[in-house]
Amino acid sequence: MKLSGLKSVENAHDDSIWACAWVPATENRPALLLTGSLDETVRLWRPDALETFWPSPSTGHCLGVVSVAAHPSGAVAASASLDSFVRVFHVDTNATIGTLEAPPSGVWGMQFDPKGNLLAVAGGSSASVKLWNTSTFELVATLAIPHSEQPRPGDKSGGGGGKFALSVAWSADGRRLACGSMDGTIAVFDVARAKLLHQLEGHFMPVRSLVYSPLDSRVLFSASDDSCVHMYDAEGKSLVSAMSGHASWVLSVDASPDGAAIATGSSDRTVKLWDLGMRAAVQTMSNHGDLVWGVAFRPPGGAGVRAGRLASVSDDKSISLYDYS
Amino acid sequence: MVTRVHIPVQNSAEEVEVALDQLPRDASDILDILKAEQAPLDIWLIIAREYFKQGKIEQFRQILEEGSSPEIDEYYADVKYERIAILNALAAFHTYLARCERSRKDEHFRTATQYYNRASRIDKDEPSTYIGKGQLCLAKREFSQAGEYFNIVLGGDQKNVSALVGQACVEFNRGELIYGEASRVHYLESLNFYKRALQAYPHCPAVVRFGIGLCRYKLGQFEKARQAFQRVLQLDPENVDALVAIGIMELHTSEADGIRKGMEKMMKAFEIYPYCGMALNYLANHFFFTGQHFLVEQLTETALAVCNHRLMKSHSYYNLARSYHSKGDFEKAGRYYMASVKEIEKPQEFVLPFYGLGQVQLKLGDFRSSLSNFEKVLEVYPENCETLKAVGHIYVQLGQHEKALETLRKASRIDPKDAQAFLEVGELLMSTDAGASLESLKTAQNLLKRKHEEVPIELLNDIGVLYFERGDFELADQTFKEALGKGVWQLVMDGKVGSSSMDLGAFIVQYRDMKLFHQLEKDGISLDLPWDKVTTLFNYARLLEELHHAEKASIMYRLILFKYPDYLDAYLRLAALSKARNDIQQSFDLIADALKVNDKCPNTLSLLGNLELKSDDWVKAKDTFRAAKDATDGKDSYTTLLLGNWNYFAALRSEKRGPKLEATHLEKAKELFTKVLVLRPGNLYAANGAGIILAEKGHFDVSKDIFTQVQEAASGSIFVQIPDVWINLAHVYFAQGHFALAVKMYQNCLRKYYYNTDTQVLLYLARTHYEAEQWQDCKKTLLRAIHLAPSNYTLRFDAGVAMQKFSASTLQKAKRSADEIRSTVAELKNAVRVFSHLSAASSYHSHGFDEKKIETHVEYCKHLLDAAKVHCEVAEREEQQTRQRLEAARQATLAEEARRKAEEQKKFQLERRKQEDELKKVMEQEEHFERVKEQWKTTGSTPASKRKDRSVLEDEEGGNGDRKRRRGGKRKRKEKRQKKRYEDEEDDMEDEHEEVDARENRGRENAQDHLLAAGLEDSDAEDDMAETISSISRRRRAWSESEDDQPSGRRPAASPADERENSAGLDDSDAEIDDEPKSNRRRRSGGNVFDDDEED
């Protein structure tokens, strides 16, 4: 289990890169890397050389792109910016399909469900996850996170115990949806019944990134500002393990397709690879010079592409690509 | 040998035979005979001597006293020699008595002197009298006088054995009186006299040979000395002195065999004569080493009883003292050492009791006396390592680090293989020179390893700590692990406990949960944690924290608490860990646990206070800080600093800033900071605090100096990190208008200390950009901040304001392209969106903004948007016009060209026609002249009319333009009015914004609390560490001390808030200035400019 650097692109964007996601391969092309930046553009990159795929970057966002997500089919992707708009577009042509907005809800983390029917969007201050139908792009459901019964001491995030939804993750079987909040709690929803199952405790600082294990739909990983990655039994509502090692906030977490490892990006400027067997960091990459906002493993699939890839993006405007083996 | 004497019977040839071994018990019988028969005096003497030999002292005395009575004197007046002999014998007897009976010494000496004087009166040249006098002087220790007497004798007779022996004795004693080389001269001299005596009288008593032996011994010729002693024993196998002497020499070989033989000799001597002090002392010494303390005491007590010699007594006391010392009875040991020391005139004579006394006094904590005793040892043995170490140790205790260091360094130089000395040097240097300390400790470690001795855990702990401090975490890790050895903690380190293989669930983050340990115990895993490893384990946990393995560290701390539930620091670390994870409730609970152990511990109270601050419980926090301060009698700078900070915050906190209250709080804060600075002039945090207060009062230059110095001072250590001072410096630059410098400073600070994650500093940065009118930078900075702190609505509001401001300023620019205006429009739309989101969000999130105000902003932005649209249209139209104009111009030139061409053509035609016509005209010149002229005129009129047309068109266009312009102007005016209103509003808004800022500041202070919290943890950590029982605490204390100021420093960090307020204040005044001369603003505002524009 190891990472080795393949390629880095300096100044891939004109400003900090805040988000990245892999667009699965289609029949015509391999998997592509989608990145979003404070420079208000979204760009698409062809591995492993990281050449730009589109003739010119997509525009149309204001105030910085905070998250990007790709449909499992690989044909469609979405990007969201601080102005609370979600833009949905055709990957190959960069043609806009639609613009989603659910005011006054903000937009933070986004993810398409594994089957590709729904797009889940963490609604920030609305304390809810918005579910959009991916064929009609209509708002089909709002999964609300209830207020905490009693505000915790020292909790200053917007008063009254109201949650601030920051991150979302679908379980591999598509039955569960987890949503991380500013106050560190993680709400787990039964999607079919649109019902909150329970909230996972353990973090007391913002949970900025979540990912389910691709192998086990019970296992959920969370990245938090408390510089820990937690591993939960999301069904049993219990904390399984806490992995510490980052020196600062953990901004992003992703699970490897083989389910044996996770990667994390942190504001301590490093990317770490964690062996889930040992539950310990086995490798630390320090090639970025600023906060690492996103890490993403390339999904398997595509013609003859078997090698594992991990991409990371950073405030230093660069993208790095690693071989994962 | 005379076995019998014959006393001649007076006036007859008969004799009375007296058997010397059958002398009557009553001396009177003999005396009667002697007197009656008028026996010669030598017979008196023989009989008296015989009595003496038989130990019948009284009879001896009786005879001699009778023999020296006046009547005898008279009777034997001409028998000089015998009379002298009798007197001398008596005198010698008294000299002997003087030696034995100390109490009546002087009396005996007097008597002896009287007898000698009488002898001298009989014959002043009698050598034996001089010898006797010499002996008397020897006994009185008047050596030079004695020497003179003996010399007189030797002057007469070179070979007088008694005189020679006497002289030898004198020299020997002189040798004893002084030390070093000089004494050798005397011993040599003494040896010579003994040799001469032996030559003069080869059969002299063994004592002469014994004397030779002693001299040889003193001269260091041990083999010859031994030969001499053995010769004595050959002559007199029961000679106790020789036995003892050989015994001593055997013992000093320090070999098992020698010691055994020596002891045999001693035992023999003891059997022969049980009252020999020397033998007793040596036996006692031996039994001390064999541990038979009972015998030691008995023997030494006997020795003390029988012996009067100072040094012997001293030895005896020493033996006793040592015996008690080894039994741990320091009180008694001290007393006997003292007694021993009292017998000694100079430490050179016998130095060991000084050492012993020093040790006991050290043990009893009487450092000064101990030091003086050890110093006496050093007078004799200036290079004695043990003593040097002891002295060094005492200096450490007395706080005289310089001297301690010097002494210990000397010790380590003298014996470069003494691990102990290096260890002490290392420990001593820990607080002052970590590098040298580490070197020294490592040397100690290596020495011990080479000798295959166990390296003490304290030493490893210290080395580990030094590596830790130096930032060598890898080496620190190894060292701590080596120190800890085997134990349950290995399981934790290897991740076998606490992370995997065990389903621990909430245990991981529930720091008060001990169930893991119960489980482990149930599983039969030993949780043994020896007390001497606790400190190291604690330090190791600190290291784990530093390496960001908070979970493992927490398990270590809990293990400590599981075994030692009173280990306060572990609670505090756990509380700090909880706090870092923002689990405030748990942190409170842990502190409550710690308070149960000790409710007066200032560290605990300080942490509690900071927690209370963090949860916004100001009043409580102040009480807690006060309690902490009281707990340290106000001596602890940290708590004082905390109070100072509290006051500082309090000054800026109140919503309606009462200037009076503010001033009092500031004054109080200043007072507290100054107090700390007086106590510890090197306290960076107090200096920082003082700098803040100065800045608060507007003394920017002074405060800048202070901050710069603090910054420089703090840049040395990895453990002293004061980001606050960077921020404060930046604030000062900001307040002085050096925006570029301020920006640099903020950015460096963010990067260096906060991993670019601190939104508060980003906000400062944004504000600086705002003031510098760098709108795009300002906006970007705010967007970054929003991304980092999504739920912070203040940031969004600020971003909205920045965009609004940007747009307004673009619209006011003298020259702007349509593109610029288009981007302005986009920005305005964003601003509107941001504001409307805010107002929408307020329905379910209270974020402290007045909805009305947001409305106003939205209104204003929309208005600007409208205006911008107009501008946009204008600009676009203008562009179009320009395009048109260009087109027209192009067409005009084309037309011109065509016309020119046409004209040329015409001209050419005309020319041709003219030529043709001329031909014709030549023919009909005069007749058609008028007609031809007319024709010319008509052809020329076409271009003219065309020109006229064009001008009309132009006029028309111009009119249009004018009209439009007029219309535009009207609207502009209206707009100007409106704009003015809005600008006023804007000003208001700005003010409001300031208010918001103020409010924000509150929030920010909270954020500051975070900072402070962070600071505090560190401090706790260090403080915590400082609290250990063992000697380690000393070391660690040093470490902690340097840091313990830290937290407070962080606190001032809070200051940024105020500084910002400061700047806010400046803003206000700005706004006021703007309000007053409206012209000012108008100059900047767009209206005029627009008009100019149009006129162009």
UniProtKB/TrEMBL annotation, chain A:
Transmembrane segments: none
Keyword Repressor (UniProt): no
PROSITE patterns noted in UniProt: WD_REPEATS_1 (PS00678), WD_REPEATS_2 (PS50082), WD_REPEATS_REGION (PS50294)
SMART domains: WD40 (SM00320)
Gene3D superfamilies listed in its UniProt record: YVTN repeat-like/Quinoprotein amine dehydrogenase
InterPro entries: SKI8, WD40/YVTN_repeat-like_dom_sf, WD40_PAC1, WD40_repeat_CS, WD40_repeat_dom_sf, WD40_rpt
GO cellular component: Cdc73/Paf1 complex
Keywords, in A-Z order: Repeat, WD repeat
SUPFAM superfamilies the UniProt entry points to: WD40 repeat-like (SSF50978)
Presence of the UniProt keyword Repeat in the record: yes
WD repeats, residue ranges: 10-45, 58-99, 167-199, 200-242, 243-284
Protein name, as recorded: Uncharacterized protein
Gene source species: Spirodela intermedia
From TrEMBL, chain B:
GO cellular component, one term: Cdc73/Paf1 complex
Acidic residues bias locations: 984-995, 1017-1026
InterPro entries: Ctr9, TPR-like_helical_dom_sf, TPR_rpt
Pfam families registered for this protein in UniProt: TPR_1, TPR_11, TPR_8
SUPFAM superfamilies associated with the record: HCP-like, TPR-like
Biased composition (Basic residues): 963-980
Residue spans crossing the bilayer: none
Compositional bias segments (type: Basic and acidic residues): 897-936, 996-1008
Gene3D superfamilies: Tetratricopeptide repeat domain
Keywords: Repeat, TPR repeat
TPR repeat feature ranges: 206-239, 351-384, 385-418, 723-756
GO process annotations (BP): regulation of DNA-templated transcription; transcription elongation by RNA polymerase II
Disordered: annotated span: 897-1096
GO molecular function terms attached to this record: RNA polymerase II complex binding
Designated name of the protein: Uncharacterized protein
High-level lineage: Eukaryota, Viridiplantae, Streptophyta, Embryophyta, Tracheophyta
